[in-house]
Known about the structure:
Elements: H1 2-10, E1 14-19, E2 24-28, H2 33-48, H3 59-68, E3 81-86, H4 92-101, E4 107-111, E5 114-118, H5 127-133, E6 141-145, H6 146-156
Amino acid sequence: MPVLRELFGTVGFDDVRTYLQSGNLVLSSDAPPGELALESKRCIAEALGLDIDVVVRTRDELAAVVERNPLGEVAIDPKRYQVSFLAEELDPETVSGLAALAAAPERLAAVGRELYAWHPEGIARSRLWAGLAGPRLGVTATARNWSTVTNLLAMADE
């Protein structure tokens, strides 16, 4: 993460900070999110030789994710509550297919470009998690647990 933080600082981004070893950066930029994602991917490829897709959310978009919290009444353990951030919204058929993978008491809520998933028994044997983490989504995605999501928002607010 120090290498990533230094890389982004040297290519012109401001206030670059990382969160633990999570692969998340919080930074300041005037670039639109789509441009920032492409520029970040290019920087990582050129400097580190890694082909990694990047998903970007603005501070306000991240705040809206936290405020919505559609499963907040049932998701009581933030380590087992996941948000998948998608590069684009899923079609209804894909969402239905994912929802069908949820085994009670798991839950899934799709809101725009985010999928909220509650895995009260963990993700190790979860068919829903396998669907969210696999290629079936058909879009670039990255998932973070609720603790990470709220901590990233707190960092963005500093």
